[in-house]
Amino acid sequence: MDAPDDVIHQPIRLRVMAALTAPGCDAEGLDFTRLKALTGATDGNLGAHIDHLARAGYVDVSKAFVGRRPRTTVATTAAGRAAFARHVAFLRSIIAEG
Amino acid sequence: MDKDQAGLQLAEIESVVARVKQSRIYRVAGDICMVWGVVHLSRYGYFRIAPHWAASSWYVVDTVGVVVTLALVQRANAGRGGGLWRAVVAFALFYGFGWIWSNVLGDFGGRQASAFWPTLFLFGYSLAGLWFGIGFTALGLSLTGLIVVGYAYAGDYYPLWLAISTGGGFLLCGLWMRRV
């Protein structure tokens, strides 16, 4: 790979993908509130970036009710995990070329 | 993209992964704290209601606490080996150490034993904070302080003090850890 992934390259989306691919989260995903705390993004900003990742096929978004409260859960797809791994490999290759 | 930008992105990824890990530890620890909050409330509440059955009831509520804790650890470590056995060994070491001191080496009465056992485990929390986050140390030291104050000044209300301070303290800390 000789270029960064244009979708993941953006800082908030990079943080979202890093959080969602972290050990323990890659299978079950994270809820929106937790992602907001982990990325430091606002509701609207995070929502827009998650939409962007979903349109690229990198994440799946599911909505459900827990009791009376709606809960939005975001999880990576296989394509998203592969794209993130390629992006990280690209970053490491730049460091290694030094 | 140059080397500096790549380095910044890799550092950002590492930072987020570390925060996720910390958040997961606090979430599981929060659940465990809430379990032990209920255990402490039951244990000392029961002591208040039926003191002659207190000792045998402690075995039951402690066993329930240990089993639920191990189940939570197992759920948190699903797919990764080692966590459950480390938790079992940790409980065995704490209870073994406590048993030697309270039954062989020490000469504890009921009041001393009811201060010793929770402070023994809270000492473990205080140490865990050095690796897993300052919240554990804050919990360990603050509840130990409350137990010592109750031991010295609560008089006949000592069991009630333990129920409220340790039971309530664990529940509040558990809620806080789950939200961090």
Describe this structure in words.
The complex is a heterodimer of chains A (98) and B (180). With 98 residues, chain A is of the alpha+beta class. Chain A has four helices and three strands, in the order H-E-H-H-E-E-H. Chain A has helices spanning 11-20, 32-39, 43-55, 78-97, and strands at 30-31, 59-66, 69-76. Chain A has a three-stranded antiparallel β-sheet with strand order 1-3-2. The longest helix of chain A is centred in the last third of the chain and has 20 residues, at 78-97. Chain A is elongated, with a radius of gyration of 14 Å. Chain A starts with 10 loop residues before the first helix and ends with a helix. The model of chain A has no long low-confidence stretch (mean pLDDT 89). With 180 residues, chain B is mainly α. Chain B has one domain. Helix content of chain B is 88%, strand content 0%. Chain B is built from six helices and no strands. Chain B has helices spanning 3-49, 54-76, 83-105, 110-132, 134-153, 158-179. The model of chain B has no long low-confidence stretch (mean pLDDT 85). Chain A binds chain B through residues 4, 11, 14-15, 18-19, 22-25, 27, 30, 34, 37-39, 88, 90-92, 94-95, 97-98, and chain B through 1-3, 6-7, 9-10, 12-13, 16-17, 19-21, 23-24, 79.
Blueprint of the fold:
The complex is a heterodimer of chains A (98) and B (180).
Chain A: H1 11-20, E1 30-31, H2 32-39, H3 43-55, E2 59-66, E3 69-76, H4 78-97
Antiparallel strand pairs in A: 1-3, 2-3
Chain B: H1 3-49, H2 54-76, H3 83-105, H4 110-132, H5 134-153, H6 158-179
